[in-house]
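Marked as duplicate of an earlier ticket. Keeping the data here for the record.
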Amino acid sequence: MEPILLVRCDPEETFGIARASLESAGAATVTWEALDGDPRPPLDGISGVVLFGSSYNVEHAEEQPFIKEARELTLEAIDRAVPYLGICFGAQLLAWSLDATVLKAPVREVGYEPIRPTPAAREDELLSHYEDGDQVFQWHMDTFEMPAGAVPLATGDQVRNQAYRVGDTTWGVQWHFEIDRREIDMWLGSFEQADGPLERSWGKSAQRIRDEAARLQDRHEAKGREVFTRFAGSTALR
């Protein structure tokens, strides 16, 4: 199997459970350090693309050249029918690349929030194992409108658009199904060291999120591993 390209868009992105899950499913991985200014890699010999989250938003495209480069990679993957999976920022970037609007969400979501799979999700290649009310890890202030022709796959109680598919090979998922407990703790610690108490700007304390993780993270990771296993399977079929 040709390798899957993991796109790092944040210095604190560890890929969580992604690499181990993909490799357990038989898929090798390579990494594009997009934020570091590494040249955009060609997709020749690449079986799939996973583009991860970022502390930047698409509104920073003029000051952060990697965002436009990531857009070009996204459009190339779509054009060549290379399976593509955008997570959080990656889902927003996908929508933006397809000329849909990315805007501030009505609320800032952080920590675990329920999602509501749509009827279309029951038959979806990647997300059919999610159930109504599943608690997923969020950390975002932006949201997106649905691209033209996209199939909505999940909604949220506070931020409506949570997951979608474009065609048969392209997905955008707002929540961080890739995150593991170590990465959660790192993100919380880094935020509070730089910006002070999380609750002040995000409405939920770091300790509350840690308490949620103690109850919910094992199931969350199991669901996430299944997404990556299925994505690896989708790349092997094409």
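See parent ticket for discussion. Residues 206-236 form the longest helix (31 residues).
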